[in-house]
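The protein record passed on for reference:
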Amino acid sequence: MFLDGDEWQAKFREFRTEAWRLETLPEYRMPQEAEEFQRFLAGERFAGPFEDYWTGLIRQRKAVGGSVGRVHVLSRPLSDYLRFEFQRYYAHSARAGEDIRILDVTDRENPLPGVQDFWIFDRDTVVLMNYESDGRQISREVYEGDPASFIDCQRIAVSESIPFLEYVSRFDL
């Protein structure tokens, strides 16, 4: 089943305990952020604090004992998009309580080779995030099989990564 619109948004409204994402691309080309990305490339910075639907969701879920998290697998030097994503999204989301972690594979073997982006909700519903090679999203697809391999990917990603705020301070980003 492909997800779009309200069906997709419902996954975030309805999860009970955890929403977690694996990100693997150096760039995501999302039409709704193209203008802000261009402004970033021109030198504009987003000091914040930035509050939006996402940071509100994170705070609301944390208030009732839930969690939102992600691990981004990447290598240095960071792409322009990753620098934008760090400043525009991650910095604000981490401060709102999202457990954002970085798995830097610059000087090591990737422990999750070939694993595609996905979201997992409550450790039982997996949504595969399908992208073109340039980061344009193709679709979101509910995975119909056993989520065990995705839960294992999550375990590996979390254990092999470091918290976002620690990562940016370590590399002075």
Remarks:
- The longest strand covers residues 67-74.
- The chain is about 40% helix and 25% strand.
- The CA atoms of residues 78 and 112 lie 19 Å apart.
- The mean pLDDT is 94.
